[in-house]
Amino acid sequence: MSRQTNIQFSNEIQALKDTRSTIITNQNDNINSTINYPPYIQTILKIEKQVDGNIIINGMTKESGTETKKLLEILNGNISRLKDAIQYGGSFRAKDVRENQTQKENNKDSHIHVDDFKEYIHLIMPSINNNADSSSSSSSSSYYYTNYIINGDNLLRIISNL
């Protein structure tokens, strides 16, 4: 019995993952912020083209082996804008489908920004806000930022060949 799949083509590319967090605490009207800069993590991005023409970008860390987590879904109509953003910088529309988001955040399109730094691009994901603690005298919010550093020429070649 064969298993049906929605994936038409798939390819992988190496990337560096930069994840930062900012924790803002307000206690008795005193605001304090802490920024965490952990080291870069080497990862693999798996880029899949579905039968309907949409592109899915999945992240896979070296530690987890073959475990992949969905990051973005780019609709067929937004792929040309994605290519332009890779070549020239700028943003494109995509659905942010990462875990650990509220249902409201997960159901909307996001503008994903691409910064161009010579031969490498920075794929900047939307921040995730986690209101962790709240009481009458103090409150705390955490913001998580993720940035993928990728060889732009290789990514453009993969997207164009899908």
UniProtKB/TrEMBL annotation:
For this UniProt record, the keywords arranged alphabetically read as follows: Plasmid
What name appears for this protein in its UniProt entry? CdsC
Q: Which organism is it from?
A: Borreliella burgdorferi 118a
